[in-house]
Amino acid sequence: MNVKEVRRNNLRNLIDAYLSNKTYELQEDFALAVGIDKSYLSQMLMEPEQKGARGVSEAKARQIEEKLSLESGYLDRFEPDSPFGSSEIESGILRPKDKGLENSNYVIVPVFDVKAACGSGYTNQNELMKGGLVFKESFLRRVGISPKFGDSGIITGDGESMSPTLNHDDSVLVDLKIKSLDDVVSGKVYAFVANKELRIKRLFKNVNGSLRISSDNNDKTTYPDEIIDVNDLHVIQICGRIKWRGGEL
User: Fold this and answer.
1) 60 lies in some domain
2) Is 47 exposed, middle or buried (0-12, 13-18, 19+ CB in 10 A)?
3) Same domain, 178 and 128
4) Does residue 145 belong to any structural domain of this protein?
């Protein structure tokens, strides 16, 4: 989920509320009230994978709020029962709302309730946000990660194949903007899906175009390297690059 999806969900709820209390009879009446073409509004409400879908941009969100006399940032808020509590998205960045912190210096990175297999891999059915970890914005930028909500996430490694780099149950910070094999830097560690299994491995690009999937564990009998032929690269879906890990010493 990113900030545009948060806005879309809030916009849907807002329209439903206005239609329910009869402030507006139809969705097109709402569109007229906020100064947005009705077709454009329909596209803003579509799921991202639908053809013609548009995200709710910063400009459109602020326009809707102004037209309806809502507080600026209203559409960027989470539901009260969300795992992020009263935290707010400011200019696309999820900030903690804590009097003890200089909020402008910190970023909340969502934690996903999934485990990536650092072994043979297994299928995760539900990718749910269950909370967040707070990082300094300067740290995220230093390691090359955008602080924007939805551009990074925390998942948990499972297994010993990447030991000693990653240990069982380590939390790892993933740069979710890295989505293509073209973006893969040979020799770095990535989260990826292969055959519906989410995995964490070190990837190497071979000169013949094939891909070597390697474990850091020296026990190559248990964790042998895998070679993906250039003609089979379509089975690999890159989810992001691992930039940080946290776990027990």
Assistant:
1) yes
2) exposed
3) yes
4) yes
Asked whether residue 181 falls in the same domain as residue 59, the answer is no
Distance CA 149, CA 135 (A): 12
Which regions of 98-225 does DSSP assign to beta strands (E)?
Answer: 106-117, 129-136, 152-158, 171-175, 189-194, 197-205, 211-214
- pTM of the entire structure? 0.78
Is 82 within the bounds of a domain?
A: no
Q: Domain limits at 40?
A: 3-76
Q: How far apart are CA 111 and CA 132, in angstroms?
A: 5
pLDDT in tens, 144-165: 999 999 899 999 988 899 999 9
Q: Could you tell me if 108 and 87 are in contact, meaning their C-beta atoms sit under 8 angstroms apart? A: yes
Q: How would DSSP label each residue in 73-101? A: TGGGBPPTTSTTTT-EEETTEEE---TTS
Q: How many other C-beta atoms are found inside a 10 Å radius of the C-beta of residue 33?
A: 14
